[in-house]
Amino acid sequence: MATAPESLAQALPGTPLVKGAGRKSFLKRMVANRRTSIAGAFLLLVAIVAMFAPLIAPYDYRDIVGRPLTSGGPLGIDDFGRDVLSRLLIGLRTSLAVALSAVAVAGVIGVALGLVAGYVGRWVSTIIMRGIDVLLSFPPIVLAIAVVAILGPALVNVVLVIGVLYIPRFTRIVYSQVLSIRSMEYVEASEIMGTKPADILVKTILPNVAAPIIVQLSLSVSFAIQMEAGLSFLGLGAQPPLPSLGTMVGAGRDFLEVQPTLLIYPSVLIILVVLALNVFGDGMRDLLDPRHRT
């Protein structure tokens, strides 16, 4: 005999009820989508490498291991005599950590604001969405440079600035989704049953807006990596001797004619990671779209 929540979900088809068969179908469609599966596998590899970078790196990123600007080591030696491969691995770890932390801040705050604004409405919605519009009126990179320059170059400041800048992306997406489903039967049924508003938001509405949030998370990480690289390139991100992909690009530009690989390696890695995130995000959007399900 079906329990009450399951019976309600079956009677109201808009309510998501995740089953094992649904997960298997999703995984099958994901594997069948070659671009998405390849991008996902590459991102998984990148995540594992970044997680275990201190163990994988042949040297400490601060150690002087050879003559500056020579071909020693797997990928060469930089201008201070440090191993490029070791610094590239730690730089990837740093950039991903900053991007993921910033997107986590943006996602939590942005989703919460979007849920409240869409469900409560009235003056609460007006205040939240007008504040989002004000934040969107500033060019992101210009605002980020200004704020980080005032607060000082530090990774914590970079995380906070990027996180705040990407809050509107999540808020607007969730807000529009909540507006379209708050009058659905399963939401009204939860209200009639006396469910607390907080429980309705978390247990009833949030699962129905999860798909666009997942897609936005993937795309936002790619944008955050680019933003962090730009700020670090300008000297406002990671500070020496800690490397990030942006700082390595900035340092390598001075030796473009002598040893161009110092610029090429981190630049190519940024391009590959960002490209994989965008392809994976696009693929997830198609897979999670009900119109593409068979």
TrEMBL record:
Ranges of residues in domain ABC transmembrane type-1: 92-281
Record InterPro entries: BP-dependent_transpt_permease (IPR050366), MetI-like (IPR000515), MetI-like_sf (IPR035906), OppC_N (IPR025966)
The keyword Transmembrane helix appears for this protein: yes
Statement: the UniProt record of this protein carries the keyword Hydrolase: no
GO biological process: transmembrane transport
Keyword terms of this UniProt record: Cell membrane, Membrane, Transmembrane, Transmembrane helix, Transport
CDD domains per UniProt: TM_PBP2 (cd06261)
Membrane-spanning segments: 38-57, 96-121, 141-167, 262-281
Membrane-related topology note: Multi-pass membrane protein
Places the protein is found: Cell membrane
Cellular component, GO, one term: plasma membrane
Domain of life, per lineage: Bacteria
Family as reported in the entry's similarity comment: Belongs to the binding-protein-dependent transport system permease family.
Protein name: ABC transporter permease
Lineage: Bacteria, Bacillati, Actinomycetota, Actinomycetes, Streptosporangiales
